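Section 5.1 Outputs to date
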Amino acid sequence: MSIFLRILLFLAFLAPARGDIRVADDLGREVHLPAPATRILTLAPHATEMLLAVGAEKNLIAVAQFAGYPHSIDAVPRINTLGSLDREYLLATHPDLVIAWASGNRQADLQWLKRSGIPVFMSEPGTLADIAATLVKLGRLTGHPEAGKSAAKHFIAGLDQACPSNPSAGKVPAYYEIWANPPMTIGGRHWLNEVLERAGLHNVFANVPRLILTLNPESLMAKDIQVIVTSQPSAPRPVHGARIYLASSELGRPGPRLVEGLEALCRQM
């Protein structure tokens, strides 16, 4: 039995989302709600997409600014999360749940949120299984437990079907480029390593026990890199002869649309 199915079976035995609700977020913190959340604010696009996947669209009162949302939430106010959080506006919306991004939002804002008394779910998935588990948890927190389980199963099935034929799974040395200059990539603690493996690629910096790292050009030149996965295909880089695969925006977000990004990556092979 896969780790994904074991997680879903465990979560399926949890109490339905009625009355008192307690779940652990990605940092292991308990999130306690006296009832399902009805006024939810998100601070990351992937969190918004997760809530849409579990059927909580009508629960959204404000979402992180992003251009790729469906038109069905055009009327939902946007929050700029690139700079300092507008704390006065956030408090004025009276949310009963905030979904934050532990490594993507400003630490000062996250510390303020923890002190605010507003229930906060910290999203920081370390694995693809964590993403599936969060869909189940958000389903419970929003009063859509069955939709949460269904979204998690759909996510797992989509991952399994995204790259149906890949005889060299996990064999091809690859470099995942977050930024070209200075060179920035993922280390071994990032969930994208699992995505690359499913596409038949292996991160050449997977032995570095970090989420994200900045490199010098010599470090790149010293590696046997056969594939570069990047959202900047025309950017100059010190690696020559490697095949360039385009990373879609969906590939970089730890949410349900990650499946679309993996499918797009595998179609290029």
